[in-house]
Amino acid sequence: MKKEELFETLGNLDPGMVENAGKYQRSRRAAWKKWTATAACAVIIGGAVLGVMTWRNGREGSAVRYPSGVTTVLAAYPASVARTMDAQKFMESDAHWDWWDSYRELTAKSAELQSGMDAYYQNLMKQMLVSEDENTVCSPINLYIAFAMLAETSDGNTRQQILDMLGAQDMDTLRKNISSLWKSNYADTPALKSVLANSLWLDSEESYNDTTLQRLAEQYYASTFRGAPGSEEMNQALRTWTDDNTGGLLKEYTENMAIAPETVFELVSTIYYKAMWRENFWEVNTEKETFHGTAGDTDVDMMKKTERMDVYQGEQFTAIGLSLQDSGSMYFLLPDENTAVNELVSDPDLMKVIRRDESSDNWYSPMVNLSVPKFKVSEKTDLIETVRALGVTDALDADLADFTPLTENRNGLYLSKADHAAMLEIDENGVTGAAYTELGVSETAAEIPDDEIDFVLDRPFLFLVTGQDGSILFSGVVRNIAET
């Protein structure tokens, strides 16, 4: 199929979205931005190759080549802001404040949605973060966008179960949420990278519903890839696209990514996030100390600072938040000595921490002697049972699943693969993270302290990274840290 024919299939899209099938030149990103952490996240929803819609991770000047046997229609993204400036000069320039004024308006709108998403966030974390000895990490916003795309390709009770899992009343509400979340969490400045991307992978021998393809392209900014599922060309294109849109942070997992021959379509959603602490830790203050993990004690690099900061005192934990430049915060929740860290994910006070209800008596502002370990956590998880536990069951049954909005008259399709891989790392300068979720749809079934406190993260703790609008970008539990 020629790229012009695929363009017609996707509907009356902006011709600027169609690019050379052999070469993918990243468009310049613009408008919405954030600061201090680096994170990448990819969600892949596949059910036989549907075609993939590709996104850019905001790295100007890079050109990605795809195999000639894979037809591509690439989405266009906002231009980068002040691309030639370094972070410090940008922060001091008028360009920063002009950008910030418009970005703040977008995040304010999205912030109004967040309380309605709290049940989704906490239900997901209950399933994803509980473990005995292993570190756990995931990207709630990435999963939300991925499953929203899956909802677009489904109908009937299959769609309703996905809507219920996401806490959305109907598709119109979900689409409004996605639009707001996207705009408020997409930023590409010298100081903040928070870049989202989506793609759709299709079988060149299959036919698909034009209306659904166009909606995914226009409302989800999804790029489309079309080729032969199971071919090395298609698999290489998938790995290349995912690596390129997650900053290359997940290569230990993406190297094994492949689209099975029986796949009808696959959806991929990514997030690449890089932000700086608003106030860095001084490396000279970092000291070797002991972390008491569930698997034993290890000597780790402990970052330190002393300053007055807001502290939340819950019934089972103490929490603080460190601000990220032009973005949200990274929250650290330390359970009380007699409380297991697994109990925190279901604690009703968890969401009160990130919603920052200043009227609550649980907040106070002592001088804090803070000790935070440098760490890197990563894992890969099979999501099938998680999806089932969250109420999405019909999609897993070929006799019940309904994917007709995309595949029209095709029956016997089901969600055959659901994997999630993620990593997050912090140091004196900020946060780096990445994650992807792969969903494949195929044929064939089967008490208040004193005014000065020590907040020492030297035993298992929970963390949350939020965007400027309060969206939970990454969450996890650190139970063990490798010796340094």
From TrEMBL:
This is Serpin family protein. InterPro entries: Serpin_CS, Serpin_dom, Serpin_fam, Serpin_sf, Serpin_sf_1, Serpin_sf_2. The keyword Disulfide bond does not apply. Signal peptide: none annotated. Belongs to the serpin family. The chain crosses the membrane at residues 35-55. Coiled coil: none annotated. GO terms for cellular component: extracellular space.
